[in-house]
Amino acid sequence: MVYDIELNSAAHYPVDGIVALSPLIEQAGFSAFWKGESNSTDPLVLLSGIAARTSKLKLGTAIYHIYGRSGVTLGIQSATLQDLSGGRLLLGLGVANKTIAAWHGGTFDRPLRRAKEYIEIVRKTAAGERVEYKGEIYTTGERFQLAWKPSHPSFPIYLAGLGPQMTRLVGQISDGVFINMATPAKIRDIADRVRAGAVEAGRDPSKIDIIAKVRVSLHPDRAMARGRLRQVLTFYNIADHYKDMLMASGFEAEVTAVQEAFKAGGFKAASAKITDAYMDKLPVIPATSVKEIKERLQPFVEAGVTRLIVPYVPVTEPVIDDARKFVEAWGNS
What we know:
This protein is 49% helix and 15% strand. With 333 residues, it is an alpha/beta fold.
């Protein structure tokens, strides 16, 4: 199993601290470092710093949304990081939601078509090809082409997907699916749809990656480990798309309780509804040892995951020191 790490969830990790920690992350045996995007630090800027301090660690965006920059811009950025890192980019993309689209002056509509056209533009741009794209949504004008020949013109592009239509599209056009906040049973369902989409497109379904996130915290006191994870889970129980997926996964009563508490008393009241029993059914691991973490990740491996991303949710301050302790413990396990 390929294990990756993310330092993003539930805390603002100082970027200079992450870059300084990256050689230890590589030494600990993690295959890739992933960074997400919303209103936090920028993934490709941070990954560029990590690229300069490491030699083998792959560099992933988990995920970049398609509203923050044009497909041509992301193609230029991707080709640049590919050259800088020696070809270590793993590009995870997503269509985001209405809120994020509005932040960037965009309109959240036609997500399937948007994703397909955007990926086509990114691939052509980053490969150094001439780009004169005329799609139903995106156009690039005439005569665009990189001024240099990229040294690593191809790289995996993964697409986040939860629903039936998007996950089938993933299998048709991307190198794999990116799954967040899903139980092993839900991962099996998504993986089946992705592979069916690949077959429909005449692609080999066994070559489509199934990538999933399972958040973890580590502390000798399990109650302490649960604390920050409870905050993360509260967010997902009130967030668009994710709350619907959790309800469809069999947690309708639990999600409804969190939603009602949030409406009546805000985030703190909602967090109180994330009980230990509910938490233990979700894709998070409040652990007292790395050995326990790896044992509890096995159901996700058995569900067909090919890359497991372990976002570390810190328990104590300063958060970068807590993350360092986790990375060291992982490397010594």
